[in-house]
Design brief:
Length: about 290
């Protein structure tokens, strides 16, 4: 550590902006330490002095005997960042700086998965973002592998392996073909975090309409309605029945119940009756009486 003129800080009675020269004392710094590690500093000179270590969120003060080693136990400096070191003896100061870097061992993950609920069979529809932290909640910026998996009992497991950049990693996954709860897991350095992603049936894929006479009316009913992956479309989904006859039109909206939609409509001779749900059209029936 070089000796000479240094800017005094407003700490422990020091006047901000005052300049002094220290020729009799100096301190040897480690340069870089890992967060939470024990470390020491060797000073030169004679007599007593005060040592300050100043950083964002942390300030350490030690009374030291010049010419001796000053030790700091594990956990003394735990916030990663750049620290200013000041050795004060009377009106003279000297000092320098050191850097505290995050520890290399992962002890915690922050894992964000979006969305929590979505339809089946969508490409790159699920996103996952991971942030890796050490024991002191410092973001570990050194690159490290993160393993992502998305799985459920009825579909093949999806896997991704990515290296973190500036402490984070991000990926996208396809929603699986079968409805149910998928386990979305991120793992780094032996630590894992899991989120559940609920996958629900998609839009109806095919509609089949059947009809039977009921006196002067027609009883209309769909086959069980499913999405394109074969999952049953949930009850409450609206199915629209449309009857066209003699230039007139009649429509009825019916929610699915137990997977099918049922309704009765007037049986007009020559009428054409169709069924639809969303953008999906079913077959058409012609009424002949």
């Amino acid at each position: 550590m070089r000796r000479g003129c240094a800017l005094l800080l407003g700490l422990g009675g020091l006047a901000a902006g005052q300049v002094a020269c220290a020729q009799s004392a100096s301190v040897s710094l480690p340069g870089t330490i890992q967060a939470g590690d024990a470390f020491s500093m060797q000073s030169t000179g004679n007599g007593k002095a005060v040592l300050y270590i100043v950083g964002l969120g942390q300030v350490l003060r030690r009374d030291v005997q010049l010419g001796e080693k000053t030790s700091f136990p594990a956990g003394s400096l735990y916030n990663a960042g750049h620290y200013l070191v000041i050795l004060v003896q009377g009106s003279s100061t000297t000092g320098g700086s050191l850097d505290v870097v995050p520890a290399h061992q992962v002890t915690d993950l922050s894992f964000l998965a979006r969305p929590s609920r979505l339809p089946v069979g969508l490409h790159d529809a699920i996103s996952g973002t991971v942030y890796v932290f050490d024991a002191y909640r410092n973001l570990i910026t050194a690159p490290m592998p993160v393993f992502f998996t998305l799985s459920n009992p009825s579909s093949a497991e999806q896997q991704r392996t990515l290296n973190t950049r500036y402490g984070s990693a991000w990926t996208e996954m396809d929603s699986t073909a079968k409805e149910g709860a998928d386990k979305f897991t991120a793992r780094a350095g032996g630590v894992s975090s899991t989120r559940m992603v609920e996958q629900v049936p998609g839009d109806p894929c095919k509609l089949t309409l059947r009809a039977r006479p009921e006196g002067q009316r027609l009883a209309l009913e769909t086959d069980p309605v499913r999405d394109c992956s074969g999952n049953a479309v949930p009850d409450g989904t609206i199915v629209t029945f449309t009857e066209n006859y003699n230039g007139a039109q009649s429509t009825v909206d019916v929610p699915l119940k137990r997977g099918i939609a049922q309704v009765e409509m007037a049986a007009h001779s020559g009428a054409r009756i169709s069924v639809a749900s969303g953008v999906v059209l079913g077959n058409e029936i012609h009424c002949e009486r």
